[in-house]
Structure formats: C-alpha cells, structure tokens
C-alpha cells in the first residue's frame, strides 16, 4: 500500500478510529488494519497492548518485595547516595523496621543536591526523602498510569490486602507492557525461567509460570499460586529446603537452590528418568 512519506502513525490511527468501537470490536479493527497494511505490525501490537492495560492488575507487573532494593530509616545521605550510584537507581524506598513499613522514597536528584550542601553528608536521609505513593495489588494498570500522570509520580509501593508491602511498580513497568522490555546499562541480564538441560531435564527458576510449563508437558494447576516455586511451597506448606524432591503429574521436581524466603531454582525431569537410572545401575 502506498502512503505519503510524512504520514504518521497518529494520522493512521485517526483514520482507523473514525468510528466508535467497543471491546473486542476494537481489537478486531486493529488486527484488520494490520492485515490490510493500515498499521505496521509493531504499531498494531503496541495498540493491542494498550487495550490490555484494563485487564492487567498492578500485581501482574510489579517487582516483588524480595527483589527491590531499599534502605533503613536513618541511613545517611552519603550512604544512600552511594547505594543509588552503585545500583543505578533514580529512586530508592526507605523503610522503618521492616519492608512492610515503607516510610519514604529517596530521590537521586535530592540526594545529590544535599551532597553539595555543607554538613549534609551525614544527615539521615529521612530529612530529604519524599512521601511514598501506595497502591493496592488489584489496581488496574490503566488506572495506575492515569494516577502516575496526574500526580507527576513515577514510582509506587504496592500493598496487599493486609497493608503489608507486596512490591514496587514504576512507570517504566507500565511502559514496558506497551513497548516491550527497556534495558539500560544498569540492568542485570535477565535469567531465563526455563533452561533445557537435555535428556528431558529442565532447570526452572522459582518464578517460572505454571502455564508456561504446559509446553513441556507439565500440567500443574492451583488457584492460589501461579509459579512453580509457589506451587511447591503450597504443596509442602512451607519453603522447601535444598535437595527436597516432589513428584506430581509424572514429573520429579528437585529443589536446587532455595533460601528461607523462596525457591530460586528447581530441576524438573520425568519421574521415570530416575527409575531408569536405578535400573541401569543394577
């Protein structure tokens, strides 16, 4: 299809949305526009991702409480700035007592301004931290984006139904839903959740989604958890220790790496593999 060189995606969107669409009709319209060349594939994918923001909850995109950095109340301005410089953060949560009591957010720009002020280096970060913005796990991502914009805020602390800290979410997390992962020089390489070890064996991260394991022939379901780590903890009634073995759905799961809080890695293999190896040894 011929298009003028100065035509933008927005003009094509305006043409696409001349008529009113609802729900699934709008998704179909976008897909048809892709098929007919009105929208590039990437453009259409971004629009479809935007339409899904209403269906996603904050808990679906947040960083869990065990995975985000934070510092205790009373940490000096200098030490807080060192932590931010080391880890590449622009904002850092501050807690009092435990992570369930986040009392402020330290902003890099505030810290660097304080460092230029005489006698401020050893002052507690509490003096310059800002009030945290709290959101529930169940808030729609589309609503969160609106609040970020209205508040001119880029970070929120996610709380569970009991008021405890569940995780952390940023505007970057929302944008990544639309455009895909955004990585910078401070991002550590992301570990694959499923690694094929050969011979029908797999290394799974504790956060590997149960639904993603279906492609491997592993069919585990539970109403209360979504990950293999959560599933094994649910079955055990606690966090299993290194070396513990479980068998479900004709698969054997061996906990390879775990701490007191969570399972980090699991080895999955067909239960018959172990029986075969025993037979061979005999």
Helix content: 25-40%
- Placed side by side, the strands forming the largest sheet appear as 8-9-12-11-10
CATH top level class name of the largest domain:
Alpha Beta
Spatial separation of the terminal alpha carbons: 69 Å
Q: What is the approximate shape?
A: globular
Which fold name fills CATH's third level, the topology of the largest domain?
Answer: CBS-domain
Q: Report the sheet with the most strands, covering strand number, pairing sense and barrel closure.
A: 5 strands, antiparallel
Radius of gyration: 24 Å
Number of helical regions:
10
In CATH, the architecture of the largest domain is: Roll
Class by helix and strand content? alpha+beta
In words, what does this structure look like?
The structure is a single chain. With 282 residues, the protein is an alpha+beta fold. The chain folds into 3 domains: 9-55, no CATH class; 60-179, CBS-domain; 194-281, Uridine Diphospho-n-acetylenolpyruvylglucosamine Reductase, domain 3 (2-Layer Sandwich). It is built from 10 helices and 12 strands. The chain has a 5-stranded antiparallel β-sheet. Strands 1-7-6-5 form a 4-stranded mixed β-sheet. β6 and β7 form a beta hairpin. The radius of gyration is 24 Å and the shape is globular. Residues 1-7, 16-21, 185-189 and 274-282 have low confidence and may be disordered.
